[in-house]
Amino acid sequence: MDFELSKEETREITKTGCFISIIAPAYNEYENLNFFYQRMKTVLNEITENWEIVFINDGSKDETLKELIRLNSIDERNKIIDFSRNFGKEIALTAGLDYASGQVIIPIDTDLQDPPELIYEMIKLWKEGNDVVYATRTKREGETFIKKITAHLFYDFINKMTKISIPKNTGDYRLMDRKVLDSLKQLKETHRFMKGLFSWVGYKQISLPYVREPRYAGTTKFNYWKLWNFAIEGITSFSIVPLQFATYLGFFVFVTSFIYAIIIITKTIIFGSDVKGYPSMMVTLLFMGGVQLITVGVIGEYVGRIYNEVKQRPLYIVNRKYGIK
Ligand code: UDP
Ligand code: MG
Description:
By secondary structure, this protein is of the alpha/beta class.
């Protein structure tokens, strides 16, 4: 089959580490893990025996770690990075990328929304010379209308505002070559918007359409507040347009108030003053106050991010590793 590797290729790859590294962040995914492993194993074994799954237990509160340890004991290709607390999916992915030893690396959700069977096609496209094969959803099943609309708006917005283009309807599910991973590892920022970073590094990228399935079990860990912050993260990490917007807004207010000032002065000179201007004064005052607060807020977003970056804290704390040196 065309996704299978020749003996020669397998041998070449085995020298460096394993062939396929799966990166699987898990936060309270206890019910999904066994099924995830079974389905993934079937797919991977068809391609090569030489694979690993790097699970990241992102501070789960349920039996996730216990289940992972069980999976590790029945198959040592299941490796675990156990975080000291919940650091969020982007950081969990980063840790997985740090420890992955494969020639090709595939981040995937553990709730089986991303079908593992797509990996055959990914490997095929990789063998044809693509460095990144990203899975693009054609349909989003089991997601609300509102979520679809907001996701759509977000991608439109971010692609207009930033110089890099982030493919629409694309999550973190993708295959990447070792060299792409090595480039990604050089990006050390604390605020990590992975989708943006994936695009930022460049290389030959190709889209692979697929249908996103509903969750196997459990519920989504994202709510609208998290998504909103995620969107702000994406925009501020890759664009300073909001800062420029503040400048233009300030300039606009300056010009209009200047014109307004001239009108008032002329009126006073011609008709004299009759101490009437209370409404217009209030409007101007409130308007100016509002504009100032917005711009200070925008600047604050960026200053806050600079603050977090300069602290240079480690991105995550590992409690314990299983199956990884
Ligand atoms: N996840 C994680 N840390 C978190 C939240 C989520 O590692 O703080 C993992 C989760 O276990 C799953 C993946 O990220 O494997 C995607 O999460 P989810 O399915 O909740 O997001 P959705 O598919 O609804 O966007
Ligand atoms: Mg999911």
